[in-house]
## 1
Amino acid sequence: MALSFLISDTHARTRSLFVTIMCGGLAGCGFGLLMPLISLNLEAMTGSGAQAGVNAAAAALAMILATPFIPGLFTRISPRALLATSLAVIALGILVFPAVRDVWAWFGTRFVIGIAVTIVFIASETWINQLAKPERRASLLAVYATVLSAGFGSGGLLLALLGAEGWAPWIAGAAIYAAGVLPVVFLRGPGLIPPSGDEGSPLAMLTTARLAPAAILAGFLFGALENSFFALMPVYGDRTGLTTVMVGLLMTTGALGALCMQIPIGNFADRTGRMRTLALITGGAVAIPLLIIASSGFGFALFPLIFLYVGLASAYYTVGLSVIGERVQAGQLAAANAAFIFAYGSGSLFGPPLGGMAMDWINPHGFLLALSVIAAIYLPIALRNWRR
């Protein structure tokens, strides 16, 4: 009977892990499709790189404003019900874009979707950090990040197959998020442990951020670099004469870089030190955009560079989350992950608009220069922490 209980408990934990990792995959697939899809449509509607960047920042603004209050929501509403509702809101919201071809309506819709996506990310990241066994936390988070990257890749592939025009790509994006509702509702297992009243307050987010400041700043870099790249690389490709199919394949290549490099980089960080790894990642994040500029006239040379760049930039996510998971207690994880997402949202808010304005100022390579500058600002911090 004890053995039966143990097997049942193991299966229940596996079901919960499946739900959390599935949420990451669905979110990645939706982002991989929607970010370039929205940018390409805005480019056709307005011809402004800055407009595409500002629209991408709407989701980041929603993330920043909502994040401090989400841990508290977990204390008042069932986390599982909140997660399922958020997925449904995202699915319905996506269908607004093709139905209402208005820039300001798109801004508002993306803001609402941004709040729901923030709930999905904080819930799934907190949940998986709570479910992870301490000795395998980095490995499990690497699996989560790998599935997230696989989702990005499949989203870019959908863009290449469906194109950027008509209803088909939007319906596909809505269906992806709607598909996640049923597993969240019906696959039962250990639930997310909500924080206590004090641990769910906005002040708790600031308190936990002080436990791992370099990790929180890694979240900022991840948000700035990832969102700028996926929001503006399609516009960059369009301005340099690439076809929609080529742009979709480049997005898929970047997502494959993140998919293939997460686990090796996670293992490298475990063996050689996480701050050393962050410093090396940052060096690559400074250099590779400059190499992309130098090779932009050589077509297929873009593929290996983008593979490496997105793979390295995405590792800010894995390494940062693993540090947070090790340094805070289970009850504090919701607030700590909220701080990480807040930093990610802040980077997402500032990165794309700066990249878009830089692209309009130095057409088309300005946004790549902006990516290098953003990473260069973090490099001394990473080097200083590495030496410590």
Note: The two ends are 51 Å apart (CA to CA).
## 2
Amino acid sequence: MTGTLLTGARVFTGTRTINADILIQGERVAAVLPPGSTAPAGVALRRLSPDMLLAPGFIDTQVNGGGGVLFNDTPTREAALAIARAHRRFGTTALLPTFITDRVEGMQAAALAAASASAVIGSGVIGVHLEGPFLTPERRGVHNLDHVRQASESDLDFLEGLPDRFGAHDARVLLSLAPDRVTPAEITRLVAAGVIVAGAHSAASFAQTLAAVDAGLTGFTHLFNAMPPLANREPGIAGAALTARDTVCGIIVDGVHVHPAMLRLALAAKGPGGLMLVTDAMPPTGTDATNFQLYGQTIHRRDGRLVTDDGTLAGADIDMAQAVRNAIHLMGVDVEEALRMASLYPARFLHLDDRLGRIQAGWRADLVLLDQTLTVTGTWVAGQWRDAAE
């Protein structure tokens, strides 16, 4: 028998924190054992500090870039892999490279590149997120108006065929769209093909959004951002997101995109399992860069913000480990719930919670090792260790 037995650290399984040893064999967790277990013959024993915490690896469904790479600029397999490597040092062991509104050719290239990257064992790429181009023009944010459009028949045909390309690798296709720019029938068509549909960048009414939910929409992208504010007589898409049962809202917890009071309001409305952390990260993550280019314009990194010259937010300057810490301090959740928001809940949203989001026998050995400050010291992806300092 070969493998590694991790011993000494506390273990958050995705459900509760326990004292246990974790046996990893190949890509998976083979067993969760009583603490102090004897390593089977041929299994390496790795002792961890008792003040460390082992948790399920973080899962980020919205990652535009990292390590100096922007997926829109280089929609290639190599770019998707580089972005995943950059985020791994911050505890993200699985992510969706995100391609925002752009040319049709770029969108198609990005999807196929992510499918190729998903086939690489241990890459950390588990699908693709296409954010746009079917958005409400006045709610597009930093998305390029020249490429915002209605869905054509060729668009729908292409999107319908994508899940088959990803399915063989247990990977997913997420599409963010405006419910006022597509019909419920089109949403149902995409969902029937296996596309996960989320609402975003939209001026849809409350009724329009609920019709989209009835048609199969199950999530909302960066809640409150690029949406009209809540109003008493027209709650709009944000109100529908807060009240629609069995939907999950991605939320950016950086203290910039959403006020802490609104974070707590969302938490109270959605309850456990209703919010998942996302970074909406851009190329500066993992670098000391002070700016980058998007659509030919300079995006400035200032005081925890990524902004255009006119102050429009262009993604977020945050990593997932910081998002977890912020959730505790800004939302008032405990450590376990913050960790679930970064792992179990996104796994459920992606229908991958039978293999990711927990430390459990048979689940993939995607783990993060955290110190007492919830700083990442290293990760395992598909059973392979990497020190965060590398």
Note: The mean pLDDT is 97.
